[in-house]
Amino acid sequence: MKKIILTGGGTAGHVTPNLALIPSLKELGYEIRYIGSYQGIEKKLIENVGIPYDGISSGKLRRYFDLKNFSDPFRVIKGYQESLRLLKKFKPDVIFSKGGFVAVPVVLAAKHYHIPTIIHESDMTPGLANKLCIPSAKKVCCNFPETLPFLPEDKAVLTGSPIRAELLEGDRLSGLNYAHLSADKPVILVIGGSLGSVAVNSAVRSLLPRLLSDYQVVHICGKGHLDETLIGLAGYVQYEYVDAPLKHLFAAADLAVSRAGANSICELLALRKPHILIPLSAAASRGDQLLNAKSFEKQGFSTVLSEESVTDDTLYEAITRTYQNRASFIQQMEQSHLSNAVKTIVNLIEECAAHQN
Question: How many Cβ atoms sit within 10 Å of the Cβ of residue 214?
């Protein structure tokens, strides 16, 4: 039986593409294990789908001063030693890494044992973790044409992001029933990301008095970000996190408001869902979301608002304009060819595994 180890963690965005690959890998007869951090968000998500999970020590490599910079290298070294033991025990034919710092010791251990590794880079430019891993990789998958010049030519493959098949199987009525909403008004789905977004959450909630006269709002606000004062407000429902019913909420939504994390926007693209992107500012990140959003805006998929420009008026105007022009956005998204990433990536995995056997 062919064996594969999946790795990646830190946020849901480093896990959901791996989840998207699992059904196809099972169909092809792969024995699958997952390596992540001891208690990261990836542990629960992977165990929920019945995949054996091994935790390793994980440290973050930072470009800025932090006292943890003195201790985290030792965590990375420990994670590398743990990865060596796990790979020696499991003997996988291939590794697929979605990134995040927990993946670095796994990929380096795979290089030690000459196990081929496929990396997926979601953002426009590779993050530090993937930069460290790329020299050890056989292939590097990416989401954006603009990413290709940043990757080794002999390794780069434009694939798009793997999307969970079940997201495409949502039912609008089931979504409305789940959220206790009616079919009489359009639905806006607000996605703050798995860790939540204070800026997006605050902007949407500030706008509710105006929004709820014309729309209904489903708000996925992130763990610890519920606003108890708004519970029971007619036409507004909020969740910290949604798993299985998310496909139905997507189906029920006429419009989405989201951060510009690569996996989130690729899901919106695959679902052909008109949307407004509010990318994380450069002051709070390395600027990857700004580049992601710019690419999608250039291709005619998205309306983009910078975080600094968000006010009640600008957000309301963007929602109104995007909803009115939703047919045009859908048409542009339908012309995209990056919609079969699972098949493309699984084919790469098969090629690498075949060369090992």
Answer: 14
| Model confidence pLDDT, tens digit, residues 114-138 | 999 999 998 888 888 899 999 999 9
- CA 175/CA 161 separation, integer angstroms: 24
Closest alpha carbon to 192 in 164, 165, 226, 167: 226
Residue 31 φ then ψ, to 5°: -85, 125
DSSP conformation letters of 317-357: HHHHHHHHTHHHHHHHHHT-----HHHHHHHHHHHHHHHH-
- Taking every pair of Cα atoms in the chain, the longest distance, rounded to a whole number of angstroms, is 62
Residues 99, 317: Cα–Cα separation, whole Å = 36
**Is this structure's pTM higher than 0.85?**
no
Give me the helices (H) in the chain, please. 16-27, 41-47, 72-90, 103-112, 128-133, 172-179, 198-211, 246-252, 262-270, 288-298, 312-324, 326-334, 341-356
Distance CA 219, CA 207 (A): 13
Q: Which of 219, 221, 301 minimizes the C-alpha distance to 265? A: 301
Rounded-to-integer distance, Cα 37 and Cα 343, Å? 27
Q: Phi/psi at 353 (nearest 5 deg)?
A: -65, -35
How many CB atoms are closer than 10 A to CB 294?
18
Per-residue pLDDT tens for 314-335?
999 999 999 999 999 999 999 8
- Whether the CB-CB separation of 293 and 280 falls below 8 Å is answered with no
Which residues, including other chains, have CB under 8 Å from residue 258's CB and lie 6 or more apart?
A: 190, 191, 193, 200, 264, 265, 268, 275, 276, 277, 278
Q: Which amino acid is at 277?
A: L
DSSP string, 94-106: EEEE--STTHHHH
Contact 25, 54 (CB under 8 A): no
